Amino acid sequence: MAAILQMENITKSFGKQRALNHVNLTIQPGDIYGLIGRNGAGKTTILKTIVQLLYADQGTITLFGATYGKDYTKQLKRTGSVIETPVANDQLTAQQNLTYYCKIKGIVDKDAIDDALKFVGLTDTGKKKFKDFSLGMKQKLGLAIALLNKPDFLILDEPINGLDPIAIADFRNLLVKINQTQGMTILISSHILEELYQMATRFGIIDHGTIIKELTKDEFDAKSREYIKLQVDQPKLAATVLNKMGIEDFKVIDQHTLNIYDLSLDNAALVEMLVAASVSVTTIVREHINLENYFKTIVAENEVTPNA
Amino acid sequence: MLNMARADTYRLFRSKGFYITQILMIIVATISILTSTIGIIGGGSDALSNFQAANQRVVWTGVQCVKAMSSETSALIYFILPLFIMTIGFEFSRQIYKNPLSSGMTRLNYFISKYVIFLLISACQVIFYYLFIFLAGGFKNGFGKITGHFLVKLLQTSSIQLLELSAIFAISTLVMYLFFSTITAVVTTILFPLIITVLVQIFTKQHWLKYFSFQNNVDSAYFTHCTSGQMSQLLLAGFGTIIVCLVLAFLSFRKRDL
């Protein structure tokens, strides 16, 4: 199946500051793609480049098969987006704002406004104007505006920033529902990683304007499975002991640490065997990698070997 | 563009600012009609002062109201300015442009749509102004004799006035697109005509300057008798300013990082 979005070798600079550095990114139909990065890593720049609020200095972007000019702009009609903070007309209510955008987008379906308000849970805002909305309400209205034309591809920039925990959960459920019921592909940037983990199906990690890692949720889950962290003075000898015990699913991490992924292991028996083999055990503990830890590890590795 | 026009009209009619502007304009015009006095902002030519003085000695019927008050039409700068802010200014100060531009509207289409809509709103404001003063004057002192010559003259006058007002707001548009600042655009709209008026009075030998004195040209459009050459230069200055400003504004906007 053809990709929804393909960014190849995208580079963008602001003056002497390089914001995007040869970015390659592919989003497949049905993905909820989580773009992860620190503040200033280039997340918003990528999203703005996709929707042509910024123009890349170099590289090509293909959206629904269109790469350049009018064709590309035409395909943007199939997208909906909320970039940076949600914007709308201050002096209009939620319903009036949606009416305004229906007129701009040429949407004549009379139910479109009520459907969108109902979908995001803004049916009871009455005559309250956008300028008086809470941040959560603004985010919801931004999403409603983006969803008005029933886009095939939704682009959201830090949509859960500033939301309270209940609003975050509501928002997450909303996005998952859109993805599952309408088959809408979603690109979402965030640095609230636990939330992103709960909704995304693929992740891209960006640092210093470069995508340094892309992986699916299944791939991440495989990496993040629970393990036994064993810290000893002689890891090579410890590995031999593990082999003798018939344990093969383990990995030597550094000069003191081994991660053992076979959780059927009897810890007490292992310690006994290691001590018998004159291996000094300093730590034996169960751990697992969450997305945040994984992100930190990948970014730290990138800091050490930026060109790797 | 039609969709954008419908949307902007919808937004304008739901804005308090629009109604406040119209009410203020009605109040100012009503005061002028009730007191049969005309004022100008920022000074004007001797011809303009003479025209206004002469008009204060006659009864203001509907027709006479239109003639007399054509010489203070430059006040419309201040009654079109809020509409400019509501149509174009807020788009930039509140970054509302992001929604249409990120969902498939080309920058050219957006730029042209916004300007054409503003132009139509300006034209409506000029029509509303003349219609109101004609009716108000008419109800006060009778409507007067509407001749064919008067109607042609009114059409010519209002067309030139719309052109000159558009030239002023083309400069505002350029400033808006260059700086994305409503305040800078507002200050420019107010100061530019005043500065030119002052320059015309200082550099009396620079005759070309008067063609760029758009505010004065608005106020003197009814009674000034231009030769065809002078009219050509007036139109050239007006249209030239509009075209140059709009082209520059679009060029700065076309590839700008938003």
Write the layout of secondary structure elements.
The complex is a heterodimer of chains A (308) and B (258).
Chain A: E1 5-14, E2 17-27, E3 32-37, H1 43-50, E4 58-63, H2 69-75, E5 79-82, H3 94-105, H4 111-120, H5 135-147, E6 153-157, H6 165-182, E7 185-190, H7 193-199, E8 202-207, E9 210-216, H8 217-223, E10 227-232, H9 235-244, E11 250-252, E12 257-260, H10 267-276, E13 281-287, H11 291-304
Parallel strand pairs in A: 3-7, 3-8, 5-6, 6-7
Antiparallel strand pairs in A: 1-2, 1-4, 8-9, 10-12, 10-13, 11-12
Chain B: H1 2-13, H2 16-35, H3 46-55, H4 62-69, H5 76-93, H6 98-101, H7 107-141, H8 148-179, H9 182-202, H10 214-219, H11 228-254
Family (chain A): Belongs to the ABC transporter superfamily.
Keywords (chain A): ATP-binding, Nucleotide-binding, Transport
Organism (chain A): Secundilactobacillus silagincola
Would you write up a description of this structure?
The complex is a heterodimer of chains A (308) and B (258). Chain A is of the alpha/beta class. Chain A has two domains: 5-222, P-loop containing nucleotide triphosphate hydrolases (Rossmann fold); 225-288, 2-Layer Sandwich (Alpha-Beta Plaits). Helix content of chain A is 38%, strand content 26%. Chain A contains eleven helices and 13 strands. In chain A, the strands form three sheets. Chain A has a six-stranded mixed beta sheet with strand order 5-6-7-3-8-9, with helices on both faces. In chain A, a hairpin with a 4-residue loop joins strand 11 and strand 12 (257-260). The longest helix of chain A is centred in the middle third of the chain and has 18 residues, at 165-182. The model of chain A has no long low-confidence stretch (mean pLDDT 89). Chain B has 258 residues and is mostly helical. Chain B has one domain. Chain B contains eleven helices and no strands. The two termini of chain B are 21 Å apart. In chain B, 45% of the residues are buried. Chain B: Keywords: Membrane, Transmembrane, Transmembrane helix. Chain B: It comes from Secundilactobacillus silagincola. Chain B: The chain crosses the membrane at residues 20-41, 76-94, 115-139, 159-179, 186-204, 234-253. Chain B: This is ABC-2 family transporter protein.
